[in-house]
Design brief:
Radius of gyration: 16 Å
Helix content: 25-40%
CATH topology: Nucleotidyltransferase, domain 5
Largest sheet: 4 strands, antiparallel
CATH class: Alpha Beta
Shape: globular
Length: about 160
């Protein structure tokens, strides 16, 4: 699953932009998770990067570490030629039913939204206070590792 989350940044500096759709000045977290909600690729970018453009970076990064991925599910923000042509991964757009009114949970998409909720429980990640994208990426992966360790602790 592919999705993005826009978060505000603090005054620490670093690259940031303005996401006009969410009305947020800060960074965007482009995320690829597996079907259980484990973070595979976590990539912070300035918030003014469109989803379809940021997806190309995430898809290319995923080919190195996870060459076996064949299909990725995404919302309609990832439509277009750029994500479809970025790699050999097939992008399947999950659309809402035409008769839907109001909020409803969509199949496959709730997994990535749940991942965003899980990592946002970390105090350091509700905003992005990092001065560099490298340190922001490191803290995203640290939060993802903490989720995995908690899961493993519950199993044993």
């Amino acid at each position: 699953m592919l999705d993005s989350q826009s978060v505000k940044t603090t005054e620490s500096g670093g690259p940031r932009g303005y996401d006009a759709g969410k009305k947020v000045k800060g960074r965007k977290r482009q995320v690829m998770v597996d079907t259980d909600g484990r973070g595979l690729i976590l990539e912070p970018q300035p918030a003014d990067v469109q989803d379809r453009d940021g997806a190309c970076v995430v898809l290319r990064l995923s080919r190195r570490a996870f060459p076996f991925i064949a299909t990725a599910f995404a919302d309609s923000g990832y439509t277009g030629e750029a994500p479809a042509q970025a790699t050999s991964i097939r992008i399947e757009i999950v659309r809402k039913p035409p008769d839907q009114v109001g909020f409803a949970v969509h199949p496959r998409r709730w997994v990535v939204e749940r991942f965003f909720a899980w990592i946002s429980r970390n105090r350091r990640l509700w905003k992005d206070p990092e001065a560099t994208l490298t340190s922001a990426r490191a803290f995203l992966y640290a939060a993802s590792v903490m989720l995995l360790v908690r899961r493993m602790g519950r199993c044993s």
